[in-house]
Amino acid sequence: MAGAKFLKFDTQSLHAGQKPDPATGARAVPIHLTSSYVFSDVDQAAALFNLERPGHIYSRISNPTVAVLEERLATLEGGVGAVCTASGQAALTLAVMTLMGTGGHIVASSSIYGGSRNLLAYTLPRFGITTSFVHPRDLDGIRAAIRPETRLVFGEVLGNPGLEVLDVPKVAAIAHEAGIPLLIDSTFTTPYLCRPFEHGADLVMHSCTKWLGGHGTAIGGVVIDGGHFDWEASDKFPTLTEPYAGYHGIDFAEEYGPAAFIARARAEGLRDFGACMSPMNAFQILQGVETLPLRMKCHIHNTRKIVCFLEGELNAEKGAVAWVSYPELVDHPDHALASRLLPQGAGSIISFGIRGNGEGGSREAGRRFIESLTLFSHLANVGDAKSLVIHPASTTHAQLDAAALAAAGVGEDMIRLSIGLEDCADLIDDLKQALRAATKG
Amino acid sequence: MLLTVNGNPVFVHTGGRDINPARPAIVLIHGAGMDHSVWSLQSRYLAHHGRSVLAVDLPGHGRSGGEPLGSIAAIADWVVALLDAAGLERATLIGHSMGALVALDAAARYGAHHGGRVEAVALLGVAERMPVHPDLLAAAHAGEQSAIEMVIGWGHGPRGHGGAQGGGCPTPGLALIPGGRRLMASVRPGVLGVDLAACNDYGQGADAAAAVVCPALFLLGALDKMTPAKAGRSLAARVKTSQVVVLPQTGHMVMTEAPDAVLETLTSFLSLRRG
């Protein structure tokens, strides 16, 4: 008997969530720049407001263009549903606010995006939600940090900027032993390289601004529900398992089963916190998602070539490269784990140390290196089609003190490269001349 | 809410409103390997339109205790026992797939000539016979993921699978196929095999249809691969009081693939009004 057929990843990147517009025949996803939607009658309006039937009311809560992106990303990740948000930070905030309130506690990897770190370490405590940070390789530490009031474990597949690989299956098992979900920020890997739900994660978020959008044009985020987690196994998640007065006593787990989390995230989180994605941004990110498989292949191809080049510089006499970190390198501490979780490539971020031979040490050498580059753009982003460079210690992770910097694996000599889609030979030429300039100080 | 039927706890989702014996009752009966949540786009609406709703988790499914019952007739008897437990004289039965066979069988044996417990039936994704391929049956009995993949894959039309002409879940942001996969994965081991065997073994569809005297709506998906619309039509032809609605571009999972069309059809069939 032939098995059932499902469309493959590359096909879903182009088609999931969309069909030609029934009104116009438009093949591309229409940009629905409308704040609100006409009700067919009073009964339909009342039913929509009471979650009795599906549909759009107001674009803060849902929008047809954004819904295509949401369904497409949910499909690519293998999740039951998604909510797109104004940014990746809004996605993390939405996930946290949907799961917990005052008194809640999070165990997070210490090697995460600086903005996420700021939210968890400095901002959420003002609202009574605290976080313990643990090195992503310290699995015993993660287990030990979980308390009775812990409601979430959070980490990134690839640490930022240290490129530690999170052992998602083991961390998921630790979280599940404690009856709490694992949220993975999968921005650096995208569903093309890693699908965290297949490794035990319960929730996935992305900054869509990065590789999903892929062109550095639109800010956006998404949180996706894997639908696996049993919210009713404990009394830890009353937002999902107890009646909610905000919709006449609805019980999301009872009403929506596997889609309980994502239903509440939209019905309450977007409605009340309001950090929705604009349809214009959704359209631009959709254009990126359509070519995600092609772009990721090229990102990985270029990254591997540049890692080889930097390794050559590392081994060269009086070379300017002090060290190179990329999870596919055999001396990377997570090499074996990366080969299991990321067989198609370990992303397109490379960290390396610049040798401070001259005056001012490595920090000054880093400045000369970055300012000498002509193709790599110095800016605070990753995952653009164009190659990017930054010095994390003075920018994205500048809020961290020396100890937190060390815990996050950020040295003063660290340079982070985000490898784009240019001809690799041009990128290597640019790196060569900038490294020469860096050593001349 | 929890009821006790035949000594076992039974979970009934009531759509956000308590059961009120003064209101006409509707029992929503899910298909093989599923639970009450497949009706989430109908149950809440029905409960807010003048009906007492009992979207049930069948024995061994979802939040209900007990073991799966193993035959369509046994489940039909159990549904009537559920009415007793809820203090309801009669109800309209709305069933999907296996649940539709249950509703059909109950309508034949508990209709106007036999106690009048079943007032009307709406049968979604139904056929006189539901033979299950031996490979699927074996995979389901063995608890293999391939069984879920087959049911979910064949069960969805283009709104689930997507493609150049399909795609677009009616509920913003949800993805139908992963959702169905997760729901079936949450069902206890062995339950899907028992359910599919019950469908496979049921051979009384034609006789049951001939015995139905209550209003009977057949709500079919034009692209249903599991219970093709043609088979549903021929079953409906055996029911004197039937009406047939075929939903275009819709597969077997009519409730999730075409929730608005299902609601509009049910509204007309049941003469629903908000209240």
Automatic annotation (TrEMBL), chain A:
| GO BP of this protein | cysteine biosynthetic process from serine; L-homocysteine biosynthetic process; transsulfuration
Identify the InterPro entries for this entry.
Answer: Cys/Met-Metab_PyrdxlP-dep_enz, Cys_met_metab_PP, OAc-hSer/O-AcSer_sulfhydrylase, PyrdxlP-dep_Trfase, PyrdxlP-dep_Trfase_major, PyrdxlP-dep_Trfase_small
Q: Name one GO molecular function term.
A: O-acetylhomoserine aminocarboxypropyltransferase activity
N6-(pyridoxal phosphate)lysine: residues carrying this PTM: K210
EC code(s) of this entry: 2.5.1.49
* Names of required cofactors: pyridoxal 5'-phosphate
What Gene Ontology terms describe where this protein resides (cellular component)?
cytoplasm
* Keywords of the record: Pyridoxal phosphate, Transferase
What's the short name of a Pfam family annotated to this entry?
Cys_Met_Meta_PP
Q: Which domain of life is it from?
A: Bacteria
> Would you identify the family this protein belongs to, as annotated?
Belongs to the trans-sulfuration enzymes family.
Q: What is this protein called?
A: O-acetylhomoserine aminocarboxypropyltransferase
From TrEMBL, chain B:
Q: Which InterPro entries match?
A: AB_hydrolase_1 (IPR000073), AB_hydrolase_fold (IPR029058), Carboxylesterase_BioH (IPR050228), Epox_hydrolase-like (IPR000639)
Q: What is this protein called?
A: Alpha/beta hydrolase
Range of residues in the leader sequence: none
| Tagged with keyword Hydrolase | yes
Which organism is this protein's natural source?
A: Azospirillum lipoferum
Q: Where is the AB hydrolase-1 domain?
A: 26-264
Keyword Membrane attached: no
- Specify the domain of life of the species encoding this protein: Bacteria
Instruction: Spell out the molecular function terms from Gene Ontology.
Output: hydrolase activity
Gene3D superfamilies assigned to the protein according to its UniProt record, in alphabetical order: alpha/beta hydrolase (3.40.50.1820)
Keywords from UniProt, A to Z, are: Hydrolase
